[in-house]
Every structure is written in C-alpha cells, then in structure tokens.
Structure prediction request, 178 residues.
Amino acid sequence: MIKFMKKISTESKEGKVSHMSLLFRAFFIVVLALICIFAMPLSAFARFTANVILIPDNFVTSPTYNLNIQVTCDGAAVTVTNGKFTAAAGKEYEITMQYVPGAAKTGYCAVNVGSTSYTTTQIGADTTTALTFKIIGGSSSKTVQMTPKWSTSARHAEFLESSVNGAYYITEGESISA
Prediction:
C-alpha cells in the first residue's frame, strides 16, 4: 500500500503531475467532503434529541415584588381581594402600602380608580419602604384596583419633570378624589 501511495503521489521526472496523482487527490477530497456531509446531520440529531437533566444554578428568573396593602375606612379594615376593593360614594379610605422584602428591591404600584390610572412613587428597600395616601369617594361607588409592579414606572421621569405636582402620580399623604 505504501509503495502504491508513493507511486501515485510523486511527480514524474519532467515535473508534471501524473493523472493518477491528480485522481488520488481528487478522490481524497471527495471522501473528506462526504464524511463532513454525513457527520453534520448526525451531530444536529444528537443535539436536538438530548435530554436536559439538570437546570443550572444561574437560571434566569424575574424577581418577585410584593406589597402589603392595608385599606381602612372610618377606622375599620376594608377587605382587599386580589388588590381590589369598592370605594363607596362619599367615604374616605386610607391606603397603606408596605414593601415586602423579596428578590426585587424596588417597584411601584399601579392604582386604577374607576377609569383613571395612577402610579405611585417608588416603594422598596432602596427608597421609601411605605406609602400612605387617601381615596375620597365621589358621587358614586367605584372599583379600586392596586397592582404591585417590579422595576420603575415607564412614566416615572415624566412625572418628576412635570410642573404640575403629578396629576396622576401618587405621593406620600396625597388625597385622590374617586
């Protein structure tokens, strides 16, 4: 075999490549190309049929942000279900939102009173840890929905730059008409 390899891979004495040498080199390139063509689909098959058996320690999850929300009316506690209660006409409700330590260090609360949307200041470990404000019932009862949100409100900068002291931005001690 070695004699054959030497014979077909050497050049003739005239410096020309023999047709056997050229044929051998072409055959070798075709064999390598075929090996690559058949190996690639097998590696893809192995990649997509493998089972995941271990979740890494650095698995990415979004942090949870919670607030302890307490509502009182005339000194009595009001039942809040899933962040929602009904504000009766002519009544005054005091709402206290307390930061609950968790993975998220800061957040805010989206407050919807009827069809009007409000956003609170940041409530969290690195800002104020509690916020108290009042909702004064209007001429008819309205549903109040409070939803804690992780991160910073998209409207935060807009409210800080506003010359009006945040018409839709709830700050400490503020009173909102329902």
Summary: The chain has three helices and eleven strands. The chain has a mean pLDDT of 78. The domain at 66-177 is CATH 2.60.120 (Jelly Rolls).
